[in-house]
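Re: flavin-adenine dinucleotide structure - here you go.
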Amino acid sequence: MTELEAFRAEVAAWLEDNRPPPDPGFLLPESFMEVGTDDQFNYLRDWQQRVFEAGYLGMAWPKEYGGGGQPQVYQDIVNAEMARLQVPFVPNTIGLNWAGPLILAIGTEAEKHKYIRRILSAEDIWCQGFSEPNSGSDLAAASTTAVRDGDEYVLNGSKIWTSLGGYAKYMILLAKTNPDAENRYAGLSYFLAPMDVPGIEVQPIRKLTGEYGFTQTFFTDARVPASCLMGKEGEGWRIAMQTLTFERGATGGQAGGLAGNAMGVADVIELARRGKRDGKPAIEDPLVRDRLVQFLIEEQGDRLCGARARIPALVSERPAAIPMSGKLRGTEHRRRLFQFALSLMGANGIRWVGDAHADRGGLWPRSYFNAFSATIGGGTSQVQANIVGERVLGLPKD
Ligand SMILES: Cc1cc2nc3c(=O)[nH]c(=O)nc-3n(C[C@H](O)[C@H](O)[C@H](O)COP(=O)(O)OP(=O)(O)OC[C@H]3O[C@@H](n4cnc5c(N)ncnc54)[C@H](O)[C@@H]3O)c2cc1C
């Protein structure tokens, strides 16, 4: 057995021995975007703490800030085992996957020491304040203001769709510091803002599924220390774009772990085995088989593309192509997959969570609705398609 194989076996054994009870007596959310009750949050935060203490999170992050200082391959193995064994996800997704890597890439020593370990241990939950009621895709239109006043900035305005907003201690925040800048990009600045100061209020937003995963965040003369500014005033747009490369998976450096526990192609195949079409198992229908094979091909293609993207010699001609298209491919694949699952179920597909007769406790329609989340959050599919068209394929803007 090689060293890596031995490590894989050790991780699998630890996960099996330490995973929390799969049925804690309340419904578990599918991803960090649906964590809406204290029970859910505490269950997931405890789990993240245990994973971190076992040394299985941030394994490739520098040791001096709380990481493991090991080669990335170890974290890749942990991530793969977590997905294979379907252990719960770790909830501090924004901290682990975009704020953390960003701070490690461009933060000061003080910022790295202050934030990184507590992101890994889930002591500090992070959220993201980019979208506003009047600016989502058009992020540069952000109008929340940050006005310097001595050693503080005074924040006014509102952010919306703030995932984990109700539990976060810090927000990565894009705000306008200079309304008279030569262009709207130059007027923006980036903050690592505390959420627990007077004048910041969060109001939960109920999703289509009835779950509460995000908030609207209001700033009313909220004062944050001037030291929260990341980089310099006016650098907000550049830093926000760098954040999005982590969020959309175009840049590596994430701490690892799972960000969700949604069902996958294997579950849909199993559904097709159980479901009936014209009195026979649905999986015997050639049209159903054809669709399932297409989904399997896409899933396998995605996995192999991910592996290929990590080998520079294979992607030297278009290094950005796979990472930039990954979010678009992956999220649209899931949305179509659940739509297909519901079509297999016929009228039973509308049986919702709590219905005693619902297949898998009614999780299918919930997964279908939630599958739209990732096609919107972090940039909509239309916007992603524009990015791939313009920046990868070199198509004209119009
Ligand atoms: C589950 C979920 C979680 C989220 N979490 C967060 C979070 O934590 N923090 C945060 O800041 N935001 C978050 N968001 C917000 C998300 O980033 C925005 O919803 C998204 O960027 C789209 O912005 P919008 O909703 O204002 O839609 P709009 O920008 O108004 O878009 C409306 C429609 O127009 C299309 N469109 C817009 N511009 C173009 C264009 N140039 N070309 C083609 N089509 C276009 C869009 O694709 C969309 O279909 C979350 C969203 C969801 C659904």
